[in-house]
Amino acid sequence: MNDNEVVAILGGGAAGFFGAIACAEANPRLTVYLIEKTGKLLSKVRISGGGRCNVTHAADTPAQLVQHYPRGAKQLKEPFKQFGAVDTVRWFERRGVRLKTEADGRMFPVTDSSETIAQALLTAADKAGVRILTYTAAEHITTLPAGGFRLHLTGTHAQELVVARLLIATGGAPKAAQYDWLRALGHTIAEPVPSLFTFNVPESPLRELPGVSVPHARVRIAGEKLEYEGPILVTHWGVSGPAVLKLSAWGARRLHELAHRHTALVSWLPTHTEDSLRQWLLEFRGQHGKKLVASNPLFGLPQRLWRTLTEQAGISTEVKWNELPVKSQNRLIEGLLRTALPVQGKTTYKDEFVTCGGVVLGEVDMKTMQSRRVPGLYFAGEVLDIDGITGGFNFQAAWTTGYLAGRAMAATPAG
């Protein structure tokens, strides 16, 4: 067999599988290897969304999609025109997998099982003739003078494999040194830092409230321009929920610079300003002055949260609204609009771990995902300096970049 008829994909995750399938389907003459160093294929697909797999997000246009990427938004606009969320839905439907849209726009298989997605990908790869090598690692990659690459494979399928084109879809890595092999191939790496994490607050004023959630709050980092609105969840270790996770994504680099030591300010009433809240309470006191402050939650806030905020404002359980001192009301307003949480570290959100950083996008042709530095070398997925917030956006970036890379590898003439 001519070596030009062989291509390889490194990484058995979402981007790697999509690239391998796209390549093999577009050019059946190719021998397509998918190489995974562990025995686990599609591991992130299987655990994402609590085992349901948040496949993509309901977005009709690239302009809608790119708003959800802290890194890579500008560069993804054209790729999303070639293969966007609508194309993802059609791709899976053609293979017998129907998706459903939830109220927040997230899309899941109608089975509510990530295994449905994993099996669809495994079946498509098998049908397309992709050769999957597990427990196999590319220990060394050598660029050949005449083009192509020699892979020194170790593990179960140890061998010297010469390939015409190579797609790297090995995912993100938390340590800069784990990208040294890509630097050796001639690429620049944006330093990897965590994204999508929760806040650890050991001295939290909310520590007695684990499990309490508020559907619409605002989280802001004191002294910074970073803030995000959305649901928030109080946990045993601090705070979580979409507002915190998405804020951590947009602020990933700055929060890393702060060593994850900062003050998070939570507004439980993001639609109110201090003036509007003061006026609202003035009118409420006039109409409901005989009501006890602590035992009658306002604004639909959970009873336990309201009780804690009144306690922190120094309001006893026997005080009525018409007896409430101005200083106590001011402290309550402060708690409602700016509960201060001294953050001392982070916790990775197990289902959605994402790395900010990776191969610098300026060194990649985003139409084909081919390296601008090394002909025949392609990238897809989280190994690139692309990351999205929660909601199916990271998978969409993996499907898109994998698809474009696979198609481009298939179209490159052999010989």
From TrEMBL:
Cofactor (UniProt) = FAD
Chain ranges of the RsdA/BaiN/AoA(So)-like Rossmann fold-like domain: 7-407
Please tell me whether the keyword Flavoprotein is annotated for this protein.
yes
Among the Pfam families in the record, one is HI0933_like_1st
* RsdA/BaiN/AoA(So)-like insert domain: residues covered: 193-354
- Domain of life, per UniProt, equals Bacteria
Does the record's keyword annotation contain Hydrolase? Answer: no
Give start-end of the signal peptide.
Answer: none
For this UniProt record, the keywords arranged alphabetically read as follows: FAD, Flavoprotein
Q: Which PANTHER family match?
A: OS12G0638800 PROTEIN
What NCBIfam families has UniProt attached to this entry?
aminoacetone oxidase family FAD-binding enzyme (TIGR00275)
Mind telling me what this protein is named?
A: NAD(P)/FAD-dependent oxidoreductase
Q: Which organism is it from?
A: Hymenobacter aerilatus
Specify the taxonomic lineage.
Answer: Bacteria, Pseudomonadati, Bacteroidota, Cytophagia, Cytophagales
